[in-house]
Amino acid sequence: MIRVSNLSKTFTLHNQGSAAIPVMTGAELTVAPGECVGLTGASGAGKSTLMRMIWGNYLAASGSIMVGDTDVATAEPRQIIALRRATLGYVSQFLRVVPRVPTLDVVAEPLRALGTPAEEARAHAASLLKRLNIPERLWSLSPTTFSGGEQQRVNIARGFAHRYPALLLDEPTASLDAANRETVLTLIEEAKQRGAAILGIFHDEGARARVCDRLVDVTAFTPHRAMEPAA
Amino acid sequence: MKMDAITATPLLRVDRLTKRYGPRIGCANVSFDLWPGEVLGIVGESGSGKSTLLSCLAGHLTPDEGQVIFDTAQGPRDVLRMTEPERRRLSRTHWAFVHQNPRDGLRMGVTAGGNVGERLMAIGARHYGGIRDKATDWLGRVEIAAERIDDRPSAFSGGMQQRLQIARNLVTGPRLVFMDEPTGGLDVSVQARLLDLLRGLVREMGLSAIIVTHDLAVVRLLADRLMVMKSGHVVEQGLTDQVLDDPQHPYTQLLVSSVLQV
Amino acid sequence: MTDYNFAYLDEQTKRMIRRAILKGVAVPGYQVPFASREMPMPYGWGTGGVQVTAACLTPDDRLKVIDQGADDTTNAVSIRKFFQRTAGVAVTEATADATVIQTRHRIPEHPLTEGQILVYQVPIPEPLRFLEPRETETRKMHSLEEYGLMHVKLYEDIARHGSIATSYAYPVKVEGRYVMDPSPIPKFDNPKLSDNPALQLFGAGREQRIYALPPYTHVVSLDFDDHPFQASKAPHDCDLCGAPDSYLDEVITDDAGSRMFVCSDTDFCRSRREAGHAGRLTMQEAAE
């Protein structure tokens, strides 16, 4: 479902003397349907970078990123948007929302984008929020005022609202208590069971052990060269 | 690849559009395709050429070179080579233009209902009750209380005027909407509400839109794609979140890093 | 030198005006610009109508001039005398006997016939003016047949008053093409515009426009499907001649608020009374 081949990435900071910083080279990765692969490596090694490249948020310098039949590395913006709507889900570490939208609608949004009627989408969102222990009195409020943990759970609810065939999860259990962590891990297992291909970053060893079928260490893709000075 | 939401012909194809002001460049060699349902943001600072570009696209200015090909019911046609009656009819039906200052896009001496109903009457609506019903419906959709239908826009706040302008433009279901700084001049909280409204309408109506703004937060929320302009040229374009999070061009990097974090 | 050229204007000017008239007749309802001349009365006093009449008159014509339907008001008298002096034409108050009728703000009640010319005095020829002040824009709207704004005006009337409140200068569509302002005639007169055997000419002196309705032109008053046009008048009969279907003037007769309704068309009312018809007041007098 997800296949990364020979992927490389370089950041060029023009406003810092055009320093070119290679951060990844020759990355290879596959995730099959029903599989959960965990990315490991030290902080700053490139786990989030790789995930963002698969999401299409970062440009690839070279290589290919196949999600289903789409090569994200070379796809047109509208193809990536279509992919993100129906096929590829992403739960990042930060909840980014339009201000003033109620939590229930934030979570229902992915379903509405696919044409699901409002009633049905909201009902499904409600069930997810309930599972993740977000009290009903908060559903009509914008999540921008919630605590970190509450925001994270809203983020996860939104990520799981639609049954994406491929999912990218960046630290989904961070800042969660034991009960909620358990819920999230269950959600991941349910997704695996329905055939989703999941790529995840888990700092929590226990979570990793529980849901990941394989681990990939991104340190293997770090270029072993000193930072290149401007020519 | 799932292509059911993607058609083969772009809604708008712009080819090497150029506008000069004597020796100075307004905008130069701008080319892009816009697809149905896509929202394109054009950002840049003052003098970048973004407003000139929008004016050329919408037919308010005549460019010196280039083509603007719109996918009409009769097939793709270069708007710049249309006759004036055809262009005017286009701008009343399939196109819409939301001005930065709502006073430029409304008839201040006409009631809210009359403002919204005008485009309907212009295409032949002749049933008063029907026009009024549709106007009431649209006022509701832009969150203006129905009992304000007989008030003049001069009695509305800036945010309400802007929402009225949007209703007036969208009532005939255009396919392409041009917006010039749609939230400029509005309070921050009012902006948020308007952006949310626009997102909903764009999605509901399957609109394509071209939004010119200097505000990166607005494009992040509204636009699927982003074009960055500097001194009349397009320096970078691509998926909005990609251009904002992984900018390639030096100017884009400068622009993104200059945004104040609240 | 005390002699005037026939009908005051020089021959070249009359020729220019006739050309404008012909153009207007060829394109019914279309406003033709013309070079309006300085006349011996100020703008706002019928200079447009006078110039059109002057261009049309021949020595054999018989002229009638009415102002709000009356032959004997100051303006009607002045203009009639003007043409008597400068053209020497015969004058009349009887509608049926006139060949040229110049009118301010009314159409005579007595039906017109082929061969008659009705000349209207027009203050503002542009029906869209109050909603769109730019001349450049209104010209485009006419040429591109963009008349949505005209219905906006009617919509606003209904929204504000519950019905179309425009009671005079009610806009019409001519032969399905041009929207025209019929001059400030009461809307009661609008139906007479359509399929009229006479030639109808409209002159606006200050605004410098001439337009025309050739005989038997189809003219429709604008309205909405659910608010159809109604040619309304005061729901009374004429108190002098008893006519039930003529346009009435309301006249206050004393300080106690008594009023009477009389035909605005003085010639029509008098000829009815001469024929023996009587209204409420005439019958009262006869009884006393």
Short description:
With 231 residues, chain A is α/β, with parallel strands linked by helices.
Describe this structure as you would to a colleague:
Chain A is of the alpha/beta class. Helix content of chain A is 35%, strand content 24%. Chain A has 7 helices and 9 strands. Chain A has a 5-stranded parallel beta sheet with strand order 6-7-8-3-9, sandwiched between helices. In chain A, helix 3 crosses helix 4 (118-131). Chain A is globular and about 50 Å long. Chain A starts with a strand and ends in a 14-residue tail after the last strand. Chain B is of the alpha/beta class and 262 residues long. Chain B is 38% helix and 25% strand. Chain B has 10 helices and 10 strands. The radius of gyration of chain B is 18 Å and the shape is globular. With 288 residues, chain C is α/β, with parallel strands linked by helices. Helix content of chain C is 29%, strand content 17%. Chain C contains 8 helices and 12 strands. The longest helix of chain C has 16 residues, at 11-26. In chain C, 45% of the residues are buried. Chains in contact: A-B, B-C. At the A-B interface, strand 1 and helix 2 of A face helix 7, helix 9 and helix 10 of B.
Write the layout of secondary structure elements.
The complex is a heterotrimer of chains A (231), B (262) and C (288).
Chain A: E1 2-13, E2 19-31, E3 36-40, H1 47-55, E4 62-67, E5 70-71, H2 77-86, E6 88-91, H3 103-113, H4 118-131, H5 148-160, E7 166-170, H6 178-193, E8 197-201, H7 205-211, E9 214-217
Parallel strand pairs in A: 3-8, 3-9, 6-7, 7-8
Antiparallel strand pairs in A: 1-2, 1-4, 4-5
Helix pairs in contact in A: 3-4, 3-5
Chain B: E1 12-21, E2 24-34, E3 39-43, H1 50-58, E4 65-72, E5 75-78, H2 84-93, E6 95-98, H3 102-105, H4 112-122, H5 128-141, H6 158-170, E7 176-180, H7 188-205, E8 208-213, H8 216-222, E9 225-230, E10 233-239, H9 240-245, H10 250-257
Parallel strand pairs in B: 3-8, 3-9, 6-7, 7-8
Antiparallel strand pairs in B: 1-2, 1-4, 4-5, 9-10
Helix pairs in contact in B: 4-5, 4-6, 5-6
Chain C: H1 11-26, E1 32-33, H2 47-56, E2 62-67, H3 74-87, E3 90-91, E4 100-104, E5 117-121, H4 135-143, H5 148-161, E6 172-174, E7 178-180, H6 190-193, E8 199-204, E9 209-213, E10 219-221, E11 248-252, E12 259-263, H7 266-274, H8 280-287
Parallel strand pairs in C: 2-3, 2-4, 4-5, 5-8
Antiparallel strand pairs in C: 1-9, 6-7, 6-10, 8-9, 11-12
Helix pairs in contact in C: 1-2
